[in-house]
Design a protein that fits this description.
The complex is a heterodimer of chains A (264) and B (268). Chain A has 264 residues and is mainly α. Chain A is built from twelve helices and no strands. In chain A, helix 4 runs parallel beside helix 7 and helix 4 packs antiparallel against helix 8. Chain A is globular and about 65 Å long. The two termini of chain A are 34 Å apart. Chain B has one domain. Chain B is an all-alpha fold and 268 residues long. The chains are: A mainly alpha (264), B mainly alpha (268).
């Protein structure tokens, strides 16, 4: 019964998101621009290097890698600010007496609405990548595995953002937390460039931080798939999701105790 | 006589702008803690960006003739111009939303310059962080002799960026745009200014430096600061004036098409 409830929340939000499909297309145009810019930057770098591969990535692999990382990163929007505003303004009190777990409700509604954004981002970004650098060789059999990995990446992304959203109660403004978190995923998480190009000391730190499990691992699987690697990455992603979700739930419990409802 | 009238109008507008600016400044610093957190977070945000480029240039020390220092010049100009345009004309990226929501009515009823009023009636706190970050880098990478040119070019860049904001916002007069469309257009404009512009070739280069001259926001100033010349500074100044005039013309042509809404709101 519980699962059905959340399934319908996701389904309703998915339907809603298709009603505003033009907005998703416009958002994807920004990803198209980023793919275009990096196609030019990497194009110059590849031309200057004598090799057709840099740290195991060909030019098309490098750009298609970014299509996936950007689509994962941007598909959910500003969850930190969304939850943060609800927490700061006290609107979260409206959810306390509802027959659902607030974080699960938020997660399933976000997943529902971000599915269309993710698909459109991959299509638009992929179209630009195709024009700029050509296709990348992938076996269609791996698509279900990549889908699972991307979904886990999106889930971890949501989980970390919900923690920061709740923490906004203590810093009184969610926006700064959002800026910093997004930049960490963008840079340390390997969204803008694969961790292989990092200095070894920084790469080893990035590999063990949760940010790389959001975008780097799923995108790396997309361009360099291996079944053993998929299993390893899935375990890492699930571990971080469980740990962060438990932490988010604990924080939410602390938050719920601090909510004071006044009449009106 | 005509010149005297123009001068009188300019000084009246400047006086009104000064009052607006001081009120906006007081509003920002009314919420000290929140404003300081926003400023510091924006500085950290910018530091993460240049940290990314440090990683990139450590691996690839030369990108089409550009070194990490050139990238820092680009960011110092880009951050200060973005910050300055936000401090001086805080509504430059919100003009389209103001038009769509019918909130331009408020400014139309006032006796002074509509455009100046509309774009300068707000300041955000985070733009101070961008400005400080830009200045901070500048003090590290420029000699004291280079600083005046850096400040002058950043001011011109701020005017160009503001003009792009006005042009983007003014599209709401002519087309049925949405807030999301304005946001994507503005983010794309800013996005193009924070990446090295020297990687583009052919038509893209013409597009970014001639057709939609967004390359003049930070790319051209960076090139001027790398190799200053009177000619290039003159070109930059002329282009700034032209873009500002185009932005103003687009706004006032569009204003004739403006249809007021019946929205009632308090502008406190």
């Amino acid at each position: 019964m519980n699962a059905v409830k959340y399934f319908f929340i996701a389904k309703t939000n998915l339907k809603n998101s298709f009603a505003y499909i033009t907005d998703s297309v416009f958002s994807a145009l920004f990803i198209a621009l980023i793919i275009f810019i990096f196609s030019n930057i990497w194009g110059v770098i590849f031309r200057a290097s004598a090799s057709s591969e840099i740290n195991g990535f060909t030019l098309p692999a490098m750009i298609w890698y970014m299509v996936i990382t950007e689509a994962i990163l941007t598909s959910q929007g500003k969850i930190i600010v969304e939850i943060g505003d609800e927490v700061i303004k006290g609107e979260i009190a409206n959810h306390l007496n509802k027959p659902y777990n607030y974080l699960l409700y938020k997660y399933f509604s976000t997943i529902g609405s971000s599915l269309s954004t993710f698909l459109i981002s991959v299509l638009v970004g992929g179209f630009v990548a195709l024009i700029m650098v050509g296709p990348v060789q992938i076996n269609p059999i791996i698509i279900p595995f990549i889908t699972i990995s991307c979904l886990l990446g999106v889930t971890l992304h949501f989980s970390l953002m919900s923690i920061l959203g709740i923490l906004a109660l203590w810093v009184e403004d969610a926006n700064p937390l959002d800026w910093l978190y997004q930049k960490l995923v963008l840079v340390i998480g390997g969204t803008l460039a694969p961790l292989e190009i990092f200095p070894s000391w920084l790469a080893s730190i990035s590999f063990i931080l949760p940010f790389s499990a959001i975008t780097y691992y799923p995108a790396k699987l997309f361009v360099q798939f291996g079944f053993d690697e998929f299993l390893r990455i899935t375990i890492i992603q699930c571990g971080w999701i469980i740990a962060s979700f438990i932490f988010a739930q604990l924080l939410y419990k602390v938050l719920s105790k601090r909510v004071s409802i006044n009449g009106g | 006589m005509a010149a005297e009238k123009i001068l009188k109008e300019c000084s009246a507008n400047l006086l009104a702008y000064k009052e607006y600016f001081l009120i906006n400044l007081r509003t920002v610093f009314e919420y000290k803690t929140s404003s300081i957190i926003q400023m510091l977070a924006m500085i950290l945000n910018d530091i993460v960006w240049i940290f990314f480029w440090w990683i990139f240039f450590t691996r690839f020390p030369l990108i089409n003739g550009w070194t990490y220092r050139d990238l820092l010049i680009l960011w110092s100009v880009g951050a200060l111009s973005f910050g300055l345009s936000g401090i001086l004309f805080g509504n430059r990226s919100k003009l389209g939303d103001i038009i769509i929501q019918g909130r331009l009515d408020y400014f139309l009823a006032l006796p002074k310059n509509v455009l100046l009023h509309a774009i300068s009636s707000r300041i955000g706190a985070s733009v101070f962080g961008d400005s400080l970050f830009g200045l901070l880098i500048a003090f590290f990478i420029f000699t004291p002799l280079e600083l005046p040119l850096y400040l002058f070019l950043s001011l011109l860049s701020a005017i160009i960026l503001t003009s792009f904001g006005v042009i983007i916002g003014s599209t709401a007069f002519f087309f049925q745009t949405t807030e999301r469309v304005h946001k994507v257009m503005w983010n794309s404009t800013v996005g193009l200014t924070i990446y090295p512009p020297n990687v583009y070739e052919g038509f893209t280069r013409i597009l970014l430096f001639v057709i939609i001259p967004v390359g003049f926001v930070s790319g051209v100033p960076t090139e001027i600061l790398r190799a200053p010349s009177i000619e290039s500074i003159a070109v930059m100044t002329i282009v700034t004036i032209i873009i500002a005039l185009i932005a103003s013309a687009v706004f006032y042509v569009g204003l004739k098409k403006y249809e007021s809404g019946n929205l009632l709101y308090v502008n406190a």
